[in-house]
Description:
With 331 residues, the chain is an alpha+beta fold. Helices cover 37% and strands 23% of the residues. The protein has one domain (25-329): 4-Layer Sandwich (Glutamine Phosphoribosylpyrophosphate, subunit 1, domain 1). The strands form two sheets. The chain has an eight-stranded mixed β-sheet with strand order 4-3-2-6-5-1-11-12. Strands 7-8-9-10 form a four-stranded antiparallel β-sheet. α2 (44-66) packs antiparallel against α3 (71-83), α3 runs antiparallel to α4 (128-138) and α8 (260-271) crosses α9. The longest helix is centred in the first third of the chain and has 23 residues, at 2-24. Mean pLDDT is 90; it is low at 9-22 and 185-195.
Amino acid sequence: MMKNFLISLILLLIYSCQSTKSENNIAIVIHGGAGTILKENMTTEVESAYLNKLEEAVQTGYEILKNGGSSQSAVDETIKIMEDSPLFNAGIGAALTNEETASLDASFMEGKNLNAGAIAGSKYIKNPISAAISVMEDSPHVLLSSDGADEFAIKMGLDTVPNSYFITERRLNSVRKAKKDDMFSFEYSYINDSKYGTVGCVAIDKMGNISSGTSTGGTTNKKWGRIGDVPIIGAGTYANNDCCGISTTGWGEHFIRNVVAYDIAAQIIYNDKGIKEASINSLDKVMKTGGDGGVIGLDNKGNISMEFNTAGMYRASIDKNGNLTVKIYSD
Length: 331
């Protein structure tokens, strides 16, 4: 009887240690875009609005992870909060095209099996991140675009809205000024380049599964059906349980050329780099081709990185020890 008791005790201790280890590794990190974000140009009210929304989003995802939910669910629900806020360039409040319409992109990837889904050029999908996940789960494809993406979303029963739902006065004024100046971006009073607006989230759950997602309205005044890095797996989004999860924000053309999200993962897998060093190295490559921006990520041990080479990046995280970080400006 004593022998059976000891065996049961040992098994209980092993399970407890494994459970604690897994629990401690849950973590989540988000971004809401990078650019020339200067404190002296930001009002107290606007600053508070961003900080509060970032905290709400990251806390929502963390609670899902803490309660045993999947990293997929955490990423989906977290990004939807930012898509549903007019503060960010995703969903409602997205940057507008030259035709003064919203054209939305999103992608999602899960690290346990490298499954991925993405949409580009959607006009009517209320939450593009959910559509990207649906493409992954409910179709044989990875990337759907334009009318096809919208038709797929309707068939899948996802929420759709009129394109006017996404249009805000701030973004309408922005694109009209950009068109007048024949530019693809221009200075806001508190952020100096609209091509850097994106939202993203990376999470690791109690099972050690990493998921990553990114969503955007693209650049202000974009033409000819322009698509940036966000819906391109390996450029704007990547996840692999063997190494890390990544979401990017920045000048999309340069992130595509440098395959930034995968480049970070490759450095970790093949060169044994840490998540922070690998992120900095990839951003250096982006700068060499004339671009800039930021990346968020976490590795399979729950270590978090939030790197950028612009003046600021809207960002927040809750690490594996439960510590909350919410920031806007460069340290």
